[in-house]
Amino acid sequence: MAALSFVIPMSVMTLFWGIIGGVVPWFIPKGPNRGVIVTMLVLTAVCCYLFWLIAILAQLNPLFGPALKNDTIWYMYYHWP
Amino acid sequence: MDSFFRSEEMCLVQLFFQTESAHNCINELGHLGLVQFKDLNPGTVAFQRRFVKEVKKCEEMERILRFLENEVVKSNIPIPADFTSETIPVPRDVLDLESRFDKLEQELKEINSNRDTLRQNFTQLMEINHLLKVFDAFLFYLHDRFVAGVIKHERFPAFEKILWRLFHGNFVLRHAEIKPHEEENMADPVKKDVFVVFVQGDQIRGKIRKFHASMYPCPNNAYARKEMRTNVNTRIEDLRLVLKRTEEFRETTLTAAAANLQEWASKVKKMKAIYYTLNLCNIDITQKLIVAEIWCPVSDLNSVHTALIHGSEQSGSSLSPVVNRIQTQQTPPTFNRVNSFTSGFQSIIDAYGVGNYQEINPAPYTMVTFPFLFAVMFGDCGHGLVMTLLALWLILHQEHFRKLKNELIDMLVDGRYIIFLMGLFSIYTGLIYNDCFSKSFNVFGSSWSVRPMFHPHGPWTNDTLHDSGHLHLDPLVSGVYSGNPYPFGVDPIWNIASNKLSFLNSYKMKMSVIMGVAHMLFGVTLSLVNYIFFRNLKDVALQFIPEVIFMLSLFGYLIFLILYKWCVVMKSESAPSILLLFINMMLFDYSSEGTVLYRTQKPVQIFLVVVAVLMVPWLLFAKPLLLYRKHKQLKFLSLPFCLSLFFGVKKAFVSLQVSMADIFVYQGIHTIEYCLGCISNTASYLRLWALSLAHAELSEVLWKMVLQVALRVTSGMGSVLLAVTFAAFAVLTVTILLVMEGLSAFLHALRLHWVEFQNKFYKGSGYKFTPLSFNRMRDMQ
């Protein structure tokens, strides 16, 4: 779990949604719609980050693998890295 | 700034103004659109009100206007576009307009009836003309008795049959078709025949009359006929001229009327609204003062005041209206200030129930969570892209669509921002589900590889491939699973795996439960905000804390189990099922082996279940018992200190009137609803999984059975077949996947908000603020 290829996406996404949800709200100009825009930004960041996090955590330690057809296996043997 | 998160603070204001300035002031308030008039004469029936005659007059004028508009449209005269006229309708305008409308109506009716009579005459003359023309061809019989006339072409065969029956063939019938002239297209496309019957006897006339045929006297000799023809021709020419003049006159009148139609319509509407509002006010007996009570947002009091001063200045009255704010115990209406973006979301919240005065408005949160939950159920970035583009089109061409005045399209246009957000979020969830028209993207390279499964690394050989149809990749063989999950979304290998659903179902079900519990916790937290705002700290301890602890200890723990099982490496054979773990936890059943995920699981679970069970009596009994004690205390104290306490603790006194049994029952219902609701609502969120599964399967079927069939054709005709099949694919995608699935996901996301989210904190039993607003009346046309 400490492998580099996991840390990179983790930190990139956390940083991205963290900026959207935590930093951009401070820069929204004052006006009648500021509260609504800030709420929307924070909620979007939280929802989207949570959704992405669930997707990646669900695949972290798989208990079973995909079942493939013979031709697919043959193709993948030669053409996928 | 705070105004969208809860409804605005409203105040009850008394207005006093003079009778002369009443119209102008109300007109100004109507343009402002920020005040709601209270009905100060609630007992009176509609036709007992003071201004009922004027309202009736306005309605009569509206009827005349509708008639005029019909006539204008029928004559294909264009109505010039609306221009905002700021003329203020005053009482004398009513009389003036009324007389004008009456005159116009009379004129138009007269013109219409004259024109119809003239047309009738014209038709008759033309028929006689035709008759005379073809008569010469028939006149070799020179019989004395004959009847000539014109009959409708389709009735002629029946006519002939009747004549045969009547006269047993003892007659001569000749007929000729009238060829339509150029000017006989005046709404008279009926084909007519000229006929002549030579027969004895008079009963023929009655029969002809029954056939609605017109008979004309025709002279016997040719000279008389010729004279008649010239006569008829002159008359026809005269009539033509008169008709043309009539038509011109009618058109001029109508065009003149059409130019003012919009202005009059809006004036009459405004006047009717003003009289209706005046009916709600209190007219002082001395007939000089009008008292009105209005609800108005506190922040807009100044603009209301300015508008009133403006109105009274316009009417030239000396005294400015008095604005007097009064305190009241009545519940004010709920007012949420919306703009064109937020109005769609507010309306779907209000469709369920308008919020109580100043309670939390779920709309700002719904603006993100509703499209997001829709997108979780819709989850296809191709369809999401189409939906976004459709919404963009609606947004950019909004005016054009509104002009069509179709109800269905109006609904779509009102929700254009909702659809836009739904499409955007669907693109995102589609990218995470890795589903685009049922195909996956492989951007980062899959984490699964096949090569390590073969010799010498793993168990497979070339023979294994030949023997079986499907083979499972085993994550325990090193190298098969790279150890790093696909960085963004679902790994693309699952799209081509035959056990794709096993993985996706488990993933999506757990995702739904996590989303659901998070959503519901958010709802419960909003109830805390409500309690704090209404200074109801008692309820925080008596309701909020046990509710949160109950939910966290059971369902928060379930989420912990899910996350733990995902994050910890374990062998597939020894991995316990979370569902069984949860059920056994509730039943305190720790007998079966292999039921532990982590070492201290058993004591932790027992502790959590006990805590949750303890929350139930806390919720059930704490609040009623406290109220009961307060009731007893007050009863004890009320004897000597009756009067002073009455004013001091008036609120508590009022609540004491409610019997204790009611409070216990209410609290019992609330507890059961909450606790059972926690379980059922969490399960209800599984519809997120179910709908996204249905959508993915439908889109896969469309691909495999429709488009792939054409893509597999190798001959040259394949391109033509592909074009046709793609048309079918596109139509089916739009109707089934976008429209049907879109509506279905919309409905279910809405239900999740209305029921599962809002029953944690929303009361929704207020009434909506409906201000007198001329803009709104105009938009509602």
From TrEMBL, chain A:
Membrane topology per record: Multi-pass membrane protein
Annotated TM spans: 6-28, 35-58
InterPro entries assigned to the protein according to its UniProt record, in alphabetical order: ATPase_V0-cplx_e1/e2_su, ATPase_V0-cplx_e1/e2_su_met
Keyword Membrane in record: yes
Gene Ontology CC, one term: proton-transporting V-type ATPase, V0 domain
Pfam families: ATP_synt_H (PF05493)
Taxonomic superkingdom: Eukaryota
UniProt-annotated location(s): Membrane
An example molecular function term from Gene Ontology annotations: proton-transporting ATPase activity, rotational mechanism
Keyword Thylakoid carried by entry: no
Keywords: Glycoprotein, Hydrogen ion transport, Ion transport, Membrane, Transmembrane, Transmembrane helix, Transport
Secretion signal span: none
Family named by the database record: Belongs to the V-ATPase e1/e2 subunit family.
Complex and partners: V-ATPase is a heteromultimeric enzyme made up of two complexes: the ATP-hydrolytic V1 complex and the proton translocation V0 complex. The V1 complex consists of three catalytic AB heterodimers that form a heterohexamer, three peripheral stalks each consisting of EG heterodimers, one central rotor including subunits D and F, and the regulatory subunits C and H. The proton translocation complex V0 consists of the proton transport subunit a, a ring of proteolipid subunits c9c'', rotary subunit d, subunits e and f, and the accessory subunits ATP6AP1/Ac45 and ATP6AP2/PRR.
Free-text function comment from the UniProt entry: Subunit of the V0 complex of vacuolar(H+)-ATPase (V-ATPase), a multisubunit enzyme composed of a peripheral complex (V1) that hydrolyzes ATP and a membrane integral complex (V0) that translocates protons. V-ATPase is responsible for acidifying and maintaining the pH of intracellular compartments and in some cell types, is targeted to the plasma membrane, where it is responsible for acidifying the extracellular environment.
Protein name according to UniProt: V-type proton ATPase subunit
Organism of derivation: Salmo trutta (Brown trout)
Lineage, top ranks: Eukaryota, Metazoa, Chordata, Craniata, Vertebrata
Automatic annotation (TrEMBL), chain B:
Key word Glycoprotein present: no
Keyword Transmembrane among record annotations: yes
BP terms from Gene Ontology: vacuolar acidification
Gene Ontology CC entries for this record: plasma membrane; vacuolar proton-transporting V-type ATPase, V0 domain
Bilayer-spanning residue ranges: 372-396, 416-433, 513-534, 540-563, 575-592, 604-622, 634-653, 720-740
Keywords: Coiled coil, Hydrogen ion transport, Ion transport, Membrane, Transmembrane, Transmembrane helix, Transport
One Gene Ontology molecular-function label: ATPase binding
UniProt topology in membrane: Multi-pass membrane protein
Compartment(s): Membrane
Pfam families: V_ATPase_I
Coiled coil regions in record: 51-121
Protein role: Essential component of the vacuolar proton pump (V-ATPase), a multimeric enzyme that catalyzes the translocation of protons across the membranes. Required for assembly and activity of the V-ATPase.
Annotated family: Belongs to the V-ATPase 116 kDa subunit family.
Protein's name according to its UniProt entry: V-type proton ATPase subunit a
Organism: Oncorhynchus kisutch
Organism lineage string: Eukaryota, Metazoa, Chordata, Craniata, Vertebrata
